[in-house]
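Notes for week 9. Today we move from apo structures to complexes. The key idea is that a small molecule is not decoration. When we ask for a structure prediction with flavin mononucleotide present, the ligand SMILES becomes part of the input, just like the chain. The input block below holds both the sequence and the ligand string. Read it once before you look at the output, and try to guess where the molecule might sit.
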Amino acid sequence: MRKSELYEKCIFPFIENTHVDSEEAHNRVVGILQFLQSIPGGLSLLSVLSQPWGGKDNKEEIQVFGLSFKNHIVLAEGFDKNGIAVPALLALGFGSVIVGSVTEHQQDGNPLSRVKRLPGGNILNQMGFPSDGAVQVARNLERTKKNIHEPVGISLALNRNRAHGEAAASYGKVQQTLYPYGEYFVINASSPNTQGLWKLQQPIYMRPIIESCLNQMEQRGGRKPLFIKVSPDSSWEEVDGILKLCDEFNLTGIVATNTTTDACRKSQLGVAGEEGGISGPVLHFWSTEVIRAIHTQSPHLAIIGMGGVNSGETAKEKMDAGASLIGIYSSLIFKGPSFPSELARDLKERIRNDRI
Ligand SMILES: Cc1cc2nc3c(=O)[nH]c(=O)nc-3n(C[C@H](O)[C@H](O)[C@H](O)COP(=O)(O)O)c2cc1C
């Protein structure tokens, strides 16, 4: 039995039985990670404890969009919103961590309790970008940067009280503040929990947002890879508009996908009529199809594929559809700390077998 199966069958049900609020449990875990990364030997301990049976063997040298990654597995946006536990998360075996989403100013997000674990390894998220704000996130990353040795991505978002007309300046400000701490950046206007945010995916709003982020990069020292994250619920016309903008500004690529608000999937999971976005296995098929469509239309763009990856098989399906890297969030919650390394190893073997 794999360590992640053991976690899923024995440890996770125990955590569920404590009836601690999901977000509270999450914060406690991040607090433990933060503590471990701050003590001598803590990162090595994490690395050893999270090792799958038979050792890690998940290291390879992957070159994508001009950066080098030790494996294909990325921690998706939302897990470490404030960039406080990046060294510890990398010690679990991730090839990269995407910090955020980060807003310009501190905000609390929606009222608690706003994260629900659902059957089948799915999650309902109603958070609405709680963020310490860009300046504090920069401080957090500054404090731990000496222990960060893999590429870090940073997701940029908008405070809820900002008008659409202020969006470009605000995204640009986050970009400017966090420029030194990220190797690549993601514009997020596809989260479902900030009212009206989705509108910013329209070219009339997205064009000035991109221009603002690129201008800030030029002023701070030059362009770094820039991505746009898309929703699985967008129409093809909307996605196509974003792909055209990627070409117009020579952007690096797309993160596909964010969570879904689809009513059928919500009712299937017993949360019909609830606000928020669903992530986890119910999203896998659809997000993979979005990746395939994007890759077919724009094969030159890099794609960070995410949505319901919970096995080597589902990760490989996303790679076959056109993803260059694979992001996970929900499966880490249900399968535990050794899952990133297990997944990286499994995917590496599948890619190697394909080549034979
Ligand atoms: C609790 C929670 C919080 C999230 N927060 C963010 C966020 O701040 N920004 C973002 O772009 N995506 C966020 N996401 C979406 C994930 O990054 C990812 O796109 C989605 O969960 C699909 O991947 P998964 O099925 O592996 O979880 C969040 C997801 C969850 C479950």
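The two ends are 27 Å apart (CA to CA).
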